[in-house]
C-alpha cells in the first residue's frame, strides 16, 4: 500500500491529472491520487491507516494531541505515516470527540478533548481524565474505592475515608466534639485501628469509642476492654475490686459516700472504681460491730448510712457516728465536761456538767451576771461575776458616787451609783451629770474642776470677740471665745470690725478716699466702689496721655483714676495731640498752633521758642526789599517786618533796591544798591551820559583821539564835555 501511495504521489507530481476522478489532483490537495474516497473534505474513517480528508490526522479524533495506544500498535510507523502525526503523543484513553466514556456519571459533560495524559482529573465522576489507569474512586491511592461515592452503576467501595467531600468528619461520639482528621491513605479495610481518636481506621463500621463492642461507649461504662462489664441490673459483689454493674460503686455498701477502712489496701485503684467517694467509713453494713459500743441510755442504734467521717454524732448513745475515734459521747455542748444527768459506760453519772446543752455552763466556766449558775457551784450572780459593774457609795442620791468600787451584778444600798466622781456627795446639785452654770458664785456644778469661763460646758454662754482698737466692734476675722463674761480683749459680742487695729474703721466709720483704698465702713467696698465715700476729686479724660485732661471734658468725681478718667486737671487745649499741653513749649509752625495752651500762638506768645524762626526786615517803600540796618527774629512776617531780604540801601525810595537799574542822575544815587553810583557803576544806563574828551593842556578843547561817556555832571580829570579839539 505504501509503495502504491508513493507511486501515485510520484505520478501525481509528474502529471497533475485527477486519475481517481474525485475532483482533486495532487496540486489541489488530493493526498492519495488513485483512491476516489481520499480527497480534501472527505469523511474521515478513523484509525484505518488512511487520511481520507487529507488533513494529516487519522488517529487523534478529539484533537487533544494524543492518540490511542492501540493505533500505535497497529501502525508502528504512525508518526511518519501522516504529517499531522509528528507532534502527537501516545496514551489517549478516550479519543471520541463529542461523547464521554460510558463509565462517566450522568452529570458529567466531558468531551474526548478533555481526556488525555496529564489532564486535570476530577475525582468521583467515573472518568479517568489523565489516563493514568488509576481508579477514579480511589483518590488516596490506598487500593480501595470510596465508600461514599457511587459509580455509574450505583456501586460504592469499602474505603471509609478517601479524601472525598462526602467522607465523615472525625468526632468524639461521647461529646460530639470534632477531632483532628488523619491522612485518608492511612484509612482502609485492614488498617491498624487506633481507639478513641474518632477515626475508623479499619473501616469495620464499629464505634471508635466502644472498643469492647458491648454497645456502650467508653463514656457510658466503667470498662471498655471487657464486654462483660457494662451498665446492667446484676447485683454488686461488694469489695471485690470490680464494678459489675458500672454504677461507680464497689465499696460503699451503705451509700453514705465513704468506703470502709482498709478498702484501699485491698483495691489500690479504689478511686477509679468509686469516683466521688472517700475512705474512712467505720461502719458500712449491719454485719459489722458498732464503733465504740452502745447504744446506751435507752437510745436507738444509728443505721450504717448515718455513720461516716464527719457525720453528726448523737450524744449519750455511746456510738462513734463521726468515725473520729472520740468516745466522749457525754459532752453534748463540747465544753470539755461530761453531763451529770447522763449515765456513762460504767452506769454512773458521766460527769459534773450541770447543763450539757450550754457550752458556757460547766465547772470550769466563769460565773456571769444573768441568774444562771455558770460554774455549777450552786450559786448565781456572785460579786465579781463576769458582766458585773462597778458600784459606788451615793449618799446624796444624785447617781454619782464616791469611794472604792465594788463589782456587782445589781445595786445594793448604799452602793447604788455606777459612776464615781461626785465632788460633793452631800449636795445633789453638784455632780458630773450636772450642768455648769454661769453665775456669780463661780461654783463647779459639773465637778470637772473648771468653773464659768474656764468650763466650755457652762451655760448660758455667749461668743465674745476681741476689740483691740476699742471701737466696740469685734474682729471679723476672729473665731471668738465662748464665755460667761468678758475676758481681756474679748469684750464684745459683735464681730463686724474689718480692721481691729484702727478705731476709725468699723461699720459706723465714714468711707473716705485714701491711697490705701481702705474699707473704713466695713461694707466690703471701698473708695470708688463705695457710694458713701467722701473726699472725691473730679477726674478728667486724658486721651493723648500727656498728663493733662481735656479742657472740654466735664469729668467725673472719683477717689482714684480709672481707665477713662485719669487726671485731676483739665488744662489740655487739644487732647488728641500729646505734644500740646501747658507743659509744652510754644514753637514756630506753619499752622500757628498754641502748643503751650496759654491762648497765644507763635509770635503772639512771648514764650515762643524762636530757634526755628527767621529774621524779617521792614519794607517801608514797599519794593519787597527791607532795610539792612534793622531786622527782627520772628516765626512769621507781620505788617512791619515783612521781608527776609535786607539789601535795600534806601528804604524810603521804592526805586532804589537790588532789582533797580542804575540811572545817571544829578544826586548821584546808587539805585541798584551795589555800592556804586552813576559813573562808578558800569551797569548805569548810557542814555543819561555824554561823550567827554581828555583836555590835558586845559585849553578847553579835548583830545579827539580819546573819549568817554560820563554823566553831565562829571568833571573827572581834564576832560571837556562835548568839545572836540581840532
How do the helices and strands line up, and which of them pair or pack?
Blueprint: H1 2-14, E1 66-67, H2 69-74, H3 78-81, E2 89-90, E3 258-260, H4 263-266, H5 270-273, E4 278-281, E5 389-393, E6 400-408, E7 415-417, E8 419-420, E9 462-466, E10 481-483, E11 490-492, E12 537-541, E13 556-558, E14 565-567, E15 614-618, E16 632-634, E17 641-643, E18 689-694, E19 708-711, E20 719-721
Parallel strand pairs: 1-2, 3-4, 6-8
Antiparallel strand pairs: 5-6, 5-7, 9-10, 9-11, 12-13, 12-14, 15-16, 15-17, 18-19, 18-20
Explain the overall architecture.
There is one protein chain. With 726 residues, this protein is low in regular secondary structure. The chain has a domain at 689-721. Helices cover 4% and strands 10% of the residues. It contains 5 helices and 20 strands. It is flat. The relative contact order is 0.02.
Brief summary:
The protein is low in regular secondary structure and 726 residues long. It contains five helices and 20 strands.
Amino acid at each position: 500500500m505504501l509503495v502504491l501511495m508513493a507511486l501515485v504521489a510520484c505520478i501525481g507530481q509528474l502529471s497533475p491529472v485527477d486519475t481517481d476522478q474525485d475532483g482533486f489532483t495532487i496540486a489541489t490537495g488530493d493526498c492519495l491520487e488513485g483512491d476516489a474516497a481520499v480527497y480534501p473534505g472527505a469523511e474521515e474513517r478513523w484509525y484505518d491507516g488512511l487520511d481520507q480528508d487529507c488533513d494529516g490526522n487519522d488517529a487523534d479524533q478529539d484533537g487533544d494531541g494524543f492518540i490511542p495506544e492501540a493505533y500505535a500498535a497497529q501502525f508502528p510507523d504512525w508518526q511518519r505515516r501522516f504529517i499531522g502525526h509528528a507532534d502527537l503523543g501516545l496514551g489517549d484513553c478516550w479519543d471520541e470527540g463529542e461523547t464521554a466514556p460510558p463509565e462517566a456519571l450522568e452529570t458529567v459533560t466531558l468531551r474526548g478533548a478533555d481526556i488525555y495524559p496529564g489532564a486535570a482529573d476530577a475525582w468521583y465522576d467515573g472518568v479517568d481524565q489523565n489516563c493514568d489507569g488509576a481508579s477514579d474512586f480511589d483518590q488516596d491511592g490506598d487500593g480501595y474505592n470510596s465508600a461514599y461515592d457511587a459509580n455509574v452503576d450505583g456501586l460504592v467501595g469499602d474505603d471509609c475515608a478517601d479524601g472525598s467531600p462526602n467522607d465523615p468528619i472525625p468526632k468524639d461520639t461521647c461529646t460530639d466534639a470534632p477531632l483532628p482528621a488523619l491522612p485518608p491513605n492511612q484509612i482502609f479495610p485492614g488498617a491498624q485501628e487506633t481507639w478513641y481518636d474518632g477515626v475508623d481506621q479499619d473501616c469495620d463500621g464499629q464505634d471508635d469509642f466502644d472498643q469492647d463492642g458491648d454497645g456502650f461507649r467508653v463514656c457510658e461504662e466503667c470498662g471498655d476492654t471487657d464486654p462483660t462489664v457494662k451498665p446492667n441490673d446484676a447485683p454488686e459483689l461488694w469489695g471485690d475490686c470490680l464494678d459489675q454493674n458500672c454504677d461507680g460503686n464497689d465499696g460503699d455498701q451503705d451509700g453514705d459516700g465513704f468506703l470502709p477502712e482498709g478498702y484501699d489496701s485491698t483495691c489500690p485503684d479504689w478511686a477509679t472504681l468509686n469516683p466521688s467517694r472517700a475512705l474512712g467509713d467505720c461502719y458500712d453494713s449491719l454485719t459489722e460491730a458498732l464503733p465504740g459500743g452502745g447504744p446506751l441510755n435507752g437510745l436507738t442504734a444509728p443505721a450504717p448510712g448515718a455513720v461516716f467521717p464527719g457525720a453528726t454524732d448523737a450524744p449519750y448513745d455511746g456510738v462513734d457516728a463521726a468515725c473520729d475515734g472520740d468516745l466522749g459521747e457525754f459532752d453534748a455542748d463540747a465544753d470539755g465536761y461530761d453531763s451529770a444527768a447522763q449515765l456513762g459506760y460504767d452506769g454512773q453519772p458521766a460527769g459534773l456538767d450541770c447543763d450539757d446543752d450550754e457550752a458556757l455552763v460547766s465547772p470550769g466556766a466563769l460565773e456571769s451576771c444573768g441568774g444562771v449558775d455558770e460554774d455549777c457551784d450552786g450559786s448565781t450572780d456572785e460579786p465579781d461575776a463576769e458582766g458585773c459593774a462597778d458600784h459606788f457609795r451615793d449618799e446624796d442620791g444624785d447617781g454619782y458616787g464616791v469611794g472604792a468600787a465594788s463589782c456587782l451584778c445589781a445595786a445594793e444600798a448604799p452602793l447604788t451609783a455606777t459612776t464615781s466622781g461626785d465632788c460633793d456627795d452631800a449636795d445633789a446639785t453638784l455632780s458630773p451629770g450636772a450642768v455648769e452654770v454661769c453665775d456669780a458664785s463661780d461654783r463647779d456644778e459639773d465637778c470637772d474642776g473648771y468653773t464659768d469661763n474656764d468650763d466650755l460646758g457652762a451655760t448660758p454662754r455667749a461668743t465674745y470677740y476681741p476689740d483691740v482698737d476699742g471701737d466696740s466692734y469685734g474682729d471679723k476675722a476672729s473665731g471668738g471665745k465662748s464665755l460667761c463674761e468678758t475676758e481681756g480683749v474679748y469684750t464684745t459680742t459683735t464681730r463686724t470690725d474689718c480692721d481691729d487695729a484702727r478705731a476709725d474703721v468699723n461699720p459706723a466709720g465714714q468711707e473716705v478716699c485714701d491711697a490705701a483704698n481702705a474699707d473704713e465702713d466695713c461694707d466690703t467696698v471701698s473708695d470708688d466702689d463705695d457710694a458713701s465715700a467722701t473726699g472725691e476729686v473730679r477726674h478728667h479724660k486724658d486721651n493723648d496721655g500727656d498728663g493733662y485732661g481735656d479742657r472740654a471734658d466735664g469729668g467725673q468725681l472719683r477717689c482714684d483714676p480709672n481707665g477713662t478718667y485719669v487726671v485731676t486737671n483739665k488744662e489740655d487745649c487739644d487732647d488728641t495731640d500729646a505734644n500740646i499741653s501747658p507743659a509744652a513749649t510754644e514753637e514756630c509752625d506753619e499752622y500757628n498752633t498754641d502748643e503751650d495752651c496759654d491762648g497765644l500762638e507763635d509770635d503772639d506768645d512771648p514764650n515762643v521758642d524762636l530757634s526755628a524762626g527767621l529774621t524779617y526786615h521792614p519794607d517801608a517803600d514797599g519794593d519787597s526789599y527791607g532795610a539792612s540796618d534793622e531786622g527782627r527774629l520772628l516765626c512769621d512776617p507781620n505788617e512791619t517786618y515783612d521781608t527776609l531780604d535786607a539789601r535795600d540801601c534806601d528804604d524810603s525810595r521804592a526805586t532804589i533796591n537790588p532789582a533797580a537799574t542804575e540811572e545817571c542822575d544829578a544826586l548821584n544815587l546808587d539805585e541798584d544798591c551795589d555800592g556804586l553810583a552813576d559813573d562808578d557803576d558800569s551797569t548805569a544806563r548810557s542814555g543819561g551820559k555824554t561823550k567827554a574828551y581828555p583836555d590835558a593842556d586845559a585849553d578847553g578843547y579835548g583830545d579827539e583821539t580819546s573819549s568817554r561817556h560820563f554823566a553831565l555832571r562829571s568833571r573827572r580829570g581834564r576832560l571837556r564835555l562835548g568839545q572836540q579839539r581840532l
